[in-house]
Write a structure and sequence with these properties.
Strand 1 and strand 2 form a beta hairpin. The chain has 20 helices and five strands. The protein has 409 residues and is of the alpha/beta class. Strands 1-2-5-3-4 form a five-stranded mixed sheet, sandwiched between helices.
Length: 409
Amino acid sequence: MTEPQDITIPEPQVTGQGPRRVIVRGDTRYTLLGTAHVSAESATEVRELIRSGEFDAVAIELCASRHQSLIEPDALANQDLFQIFRQGKAGMVAASLALGAFQQRVAEQSGIEPGAEMRAALEETQGAKLPLLLIDREVGVTLKRIYANVPWWQRLGLFSGLLGSVVSRQEVSSADIERLKEGDVLESTFNEFAEQSERLYTPLIRERDRYMALSLEEQAPKHYRNVLVIIGAGHLRGMAEHLEGDLPAAPRAERESLEHTPPRSKVWKLLPWAITVLVLAGFALGFSKDTGLGWQLVGEWFLINGILSGLGAAIALGHPVTVIATFFAAPLTSLNPTIGAGFVAAGVELAMRKPKVRDFSTLRHDVATPKGWWKNRVSRTLLVFLLATLGSAAGTWIAGLRIAGQLIG
């Protein structure tokens, strides 16, 4: 492997300069530009560098899905919402909308859309007909690795923080905007936790530094000699250290290892079935002791499960038919791990209030405010799914513990 080296090369003249590192590996020169994600100056600098004609390729801190959202911001309108629920992606879509809501609030307050320099890079590379290299890891993979890497009690804090960024009516703090100058919206949202947790910092920052360096080494040397690499300033040091250090001759295997998401624990897979067996056994034991007790246990199971899940759908302002259907479905779906109450609730809500074109076109703006989540039919259906699921889960545990108490007592 050719040893990397720093070389002195005259830089194109631009009006303002962000932090940079020039690194050469073999025959390929990388110019790492650290940008501020909330900065008109960074966007201008990106445009001027690409227009300078110095580079034969541009690499940016984007994954395929975030790239798609930039070039097609209303892509959700082309997706089948029912399939999103069926494939278990509702939580991921809701998280993406929550991050987008935070981004929209920053844009409205600062007058600058976060990621303006990435949009500038897309426009300029297209105009100059330069190759565009997407080097970041998929945001969904990063979220899953964060989830798997932190203990369950810290997960609650992370997602409550994410929820807080949605429901808060306060202006985005100057500290948050300063953090956005170093990292993207995802990093800014979790930054407070990342600074205090190595388990969170590793998948959120350190792994992505390595991943992006590996992506560059995999794509660039085969085809390009002078690559402009546009990354958040917070990634500059880490990426430079990797590019200046040892990278495998065949980086693909290590890069793919950083895309691996740990399989769900067998315990969590078996738990719903175990609960079903225990509840049914509790019913049987109750009937064996006394028919009245048996019917009492069945009635409490249906009422507690149905009321809490139906309440979740009602809090989401689901259609009255949705609330009623959820009430009757939840006690049954809780005994069938292959289907959830939220899935039934969302399906009924879609049938009763199918989202219109206007809902998709205003979605990104609507979710920037708490009221908008309940106003927009797309985001409201997501809330119906999530809150009905949460209510059913709470009902299952509460009713299950009550059944156990009745039998043991």
